[in-house]
């Protein structure tokens, strides 16, 4: 397991089979100049779980609703399920059912 601080309230936890991204707000460059999320995380083959503690703009970036990739499992927390439904974007991501596990 590798835990990485990305920016502001955002952390990335990488496991062998999947990654968990918490409170994504803004992408920032890695040491080699490529971005943490768009260039590194979204290009990984492993499943991605995105968790947001609340819908404030510095803890949730609506861009995450565009990250769906057919070859990857992609899950959002229940709070984002409500926001995505409100935005009419539930077709873009796989969302857990109430009471379900991720």
Give the gist of this structure.
15% of the residues lie in helices and 24% in strands.
Report on this model:
This protein has 102 residues and is of the alpha/beta class. The protein has one domain (2-92): Metallo-beta-lactamase, Chain A (4-Layer Sandwich), CATH 3.60.15. Helices cover 15% and strands 24% of the residues. It contains two helices and five strands; from the N terminus they run βββαββα. It has helices at residues 36-40, 78-87; strands at residues 2-7, 10-14, 18-22, 47-51, 74-76. The protein has a five-stranded mixed beta sheet. Strand 3 (18-22), helix 1 (36-40) and strand 4 form a beta-alpha-beta unit. The protein is globular, with a radius of gyration of 13 Å. The protein starts with a strand and ends in a 15-residue tail after the last helix.
Unreliable stretches covering 5 or more consecutive residues: 95-102
Main beta sheet strand tally, sense and closure: 5 strands, mixed
**What is the fold-level CATH name, i.e. the topology?**
Metallo-beta-lactamase, Chain A
The 3D shape can be described as: globular
Task: Work out the number of β strands.
Answer: 5
Mean pLDDT level: 75
Tell me the span between the first and last alpha carbons. Answer: 18 Å
CATH architecture: 4-Layer Sandwich
One letter per element, helices H and strands E, the order comes to: EEEHEEH
Radius of gyration equals: 13 Å
At the first level of CATH, the class is Alpha Beta
- If helices are DSSP runs of H or I spanning 4 or more residues, what is the number of helices? 2
Supply the number of structural domains: 1
Strand fraction: 15-25%
Within CATH, the superfamily carries the name: Ribonuclease Z/Hydroxyacylglutathione hydrolase-like
**Structural class by SSE content:** alpha/beta
